[in-house]
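Lecture notes, continued. The same structure-token format from the folding unit now serves as the input rather than the output. Read the line below as a description of shape only.
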């Protein structure tokens, strides 16, 4: 349901302001991607990646999403 996802996005955006951590960035990015808000989702995935630089799988998935967004 789009309304539930939008409500979750609002809660997660507030959480990012008060406690920016890897999991919050990741959940927010996935919620945005689920609503087809690709650039915003990718931006939060990048933030998640910065907080966990050794996550090579996440970095690779960001690259795939960036390529798809350009196509």
């Amino acid at each position: 349901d789009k309304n539930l996802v939008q409500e979750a996005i609002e809660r997660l955006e507030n959480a990012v302001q008060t406690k920016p951590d890897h999991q919050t960035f990741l959940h927010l990015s996935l919620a945005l991607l689920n609503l087809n808000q690709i650039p915003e989702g990718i931006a939060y995935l990048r933030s998640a990646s910065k907080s966990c630089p050794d996550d090579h799988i996440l970095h690779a998935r960001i690259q795939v999403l960036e390529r798809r967004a350009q196509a």
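Point for the exam: The radius of gyration is 12 Å.
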